[in-house]
Amino acid sequence: MTSTSFQPDSPSAQRFPVVIVGAGPAGLTIANILRAASVDCLVLELETREFIERRPRAGVIEEWAVRGLRERGLADNLLERAELHTQCEFRVGGRRHRFSYTELTGHHHYVYPQPLLVTDLVRAYADVRGGAVRFGVRDVRLHDLDSDRPAVSYSDPGTGRRELVRCEFVIGCDGARGVTRTALPPHARISRQDYGVGWLALLAETPPSSDCVVFGIHPRGFAGHMPRSAEVTRYYLQCPPGDDPESWSHDRVWAELRERLGTDDRPPLTEGRLIEKRVLDMHNYVVEPMAFGRLFLAGDAAHLTAPIAAKGMNLALHDAFLLGDGLVARLTRGESAGLEGYSAACLDRVWDYQEFSQWLSEVYHGASSGDAYRAGTALARLRRLFSSPAAAASFAEQYLGKSSAS
Ligand code: FAD
Questions:
Q1: Measured from the CB, is residue 202 less than 6 Å from ligand 1?
Q2: Phi first, then psi: what are they for 23, rounded to 5°?
């Protein structure tokens, strides 16, 4: 392991059975599962509570994930406030193609903005269940991961002092830019894929311009419309990787969205103030296995899926359910099977979603690739989707996350 040793048996060391690095959907869900079973843990988070409760990101949650949250008492607000989505729409060459996945399968998506879910999870863990969490920590480091008593150290934002926490398990839930992945041993395999495109991710203070998710397939590049609430809509515009978001003025953004999402038979988009504008370099990775001795990774720390098919938060929740339950079984009943099977059980769904994202990426980006062959095959995929009931059923199953055993 590339972790270091740090003052073993320091008299000031805190002790928790589990230390979770990162308070995103994965870390907070695991923390809630542990606290509900009276297992103590400490959550260490780089940002402030206010920041994580407002950070806009995902919105689409799959049925099995909501069921998992509900079974753990974590979905009350979600079930009250989430919208149900039953269809999506592809716009190609100015024509609209509705795809009613609920009609085909009887299943739907929930749309509930990630900041609301994170707010619910923090409240349930810290305020209701009295769980321990330190916000604003700096310089988190992992120690002695190859021993039975690993440790995590961090700088306390208030005192500036370096604190040490001894534990039995370290859980890396610190997302795509976290620190826990840097502690992996040399035999860890990290597979990566780069789509070679960027997406300008936008949040607009405006109601949705359609009642569903819209995918614009256009020779100038992909554009997406994702309703988030009655007041806020997420939009995406394909752009060169590494593009400067500041080169996208309000007027340029809306002109490009109008062009790529335009149709003959719908009113123009409802425009509004842009409250988030950032460029995502679209790439994926998968770490295998997801567990190394006493270190377990979950969510984006273990695998990234570019937001092509709205899968990242769902995968983070899937990992969290399995890992939370596995830790509880081990720490309360001495049963290790859940932890031993954790990585393999997660990776089946991870690879399934990776493959679907790759397939869908070609549909989105083929038309604008500048390669006539890719453009032709991308359009063939779309035609098959609209003309073949078997292809439509298969797409619906994957889009809803029903192709993996749940
Ligand atoms: P994160 O949410 O990234 O949480 C990690 C936490 O760790 C953060 O709070 C971070 O501050 C903290 N942290 C980082 N480094 C450290 C450190 N060194 N020490 C301590 N703490 C640290 N997914 C979907 O399923 N559906 C969607 O519709 C969707 N849309 C998306 C749209 C956008 C624009 C983006 C960027 C992502 C989207 N995703 C979507 C993906 C989804 O947001 C992520 O997959 C999800 O947040 C992963 O949760 P996580 O808990 O693993 O990681």
A1: no
A2: -110, 55
